[in-house]
User: What shape does this take?
Amino acid sequence: MAALIPKCVNGSVYQAARAFCRQEILEKGLCEIPNFLTSTAVTKILSSAERVKGLGKGFRSSEEHNVYLEDNAETTTAVDTVLRTVSFPSSKVLLNQAELQEDCPELLELFRWPGLRGLLQEAFALPKLFCSADPLGGVYLNFFERGDRLGWHFDRSAFSVNLILRECPRGQGTWPPGAFMYIPDSKGFFDANPNFDLATLQSGSNPSSSVGLNPTVVPDLKPGTLYLFAGHRSLHCVSENTTDTVRVNAIFTYNLEPNVSLNQYTRQKFFGS
Ligand SMILES: O=C(O)CCC(=O)C(=O)O
Ligand SMILES: [Fe+2]
Assistant: This one.
C-alpha cells in the first residue's frame, strides 16, 4: 500500500490523516493536514508554476457575488434580503489544468491518485468519488496577488480539497493578509438572519461571538498543508492580500458522479476560455 503513495506525499502524514479526518470534519467542518506535501515538492511545484505563469499563461478573474456565490446576473429581487443583495468582490489569477499539466506533473499525479479521493471519502463519508472530467477545472492553481481576495461566501459543494503552496506573512492587524478564515457552522445562523449586516464582518474586530456566531477562525496554514473543508456549512473568505507575497494554492475537483465537466458559461466565467 505504502508503495502506491506518490513521492511528493509524506506517507506517514497521509496514513495518520486517514485516521483523524472524519472526526475533524464532524467536529469543525475543517481538517488540516500539515506537511502533507514534501517541502521538496512544494518548492518544485511553485517554481514550475511561476515559470508557466511568467510565460503569460493564466487568467485574471474578477467578479462580484453574494454569500451564496450568485453573481449580479443571477441575483433576483424575488428574495430581497441583505444576504442576497450585498455583493463582495473576488479576484485572483488562475492557471488551469491544461496550462499546468506538463510542468507540474505532481499536481496531476495527486489529482488522479485514488488515495486522495479515499481520504476525502473517509472525511466526508462519501460512498464514491470521481475526478472531474473537465480539461481545465480538474486541478488548478490560484494566485492571490496584491489587492486580490475571495469575498465571504458559502461553497455550493459540500466538500473541497485545497493544497497550500505559499501563504502571506502575517501582519499586526486583527486579520492577517491573504488568509483563509471561516465562521464555523454558521449556515444556520445566516439562514435564520437573512438581513444580518455583513459590514460587521468587515470591521477590524471579531464580532462573531457577540451576535451568536462562533468566533471567526484563521487557521495557520503552511506551505505543504492540505486542508479538507465543508464549505457549505461555514461562511468563509480569503482576506485581501495587502503584501507583495503571492499566495498560491491548488484546488482539486471531485464529483459524486462520473464524467462531470463544466458548462460553457461556468468555464468562461472561471477560466476565461
Ligand atoms: O483559497 C482558499 O483557501 C479558499 C478557497 C475557497 O474558499 C474556494 O475556492 O471556494
Ligand atoms: Fe469557498
In short: The first helix runs from residue 11 to 28. Residues 20-271 form a domain with the Jelly Rolls fold (CATH 2.60.120.620).
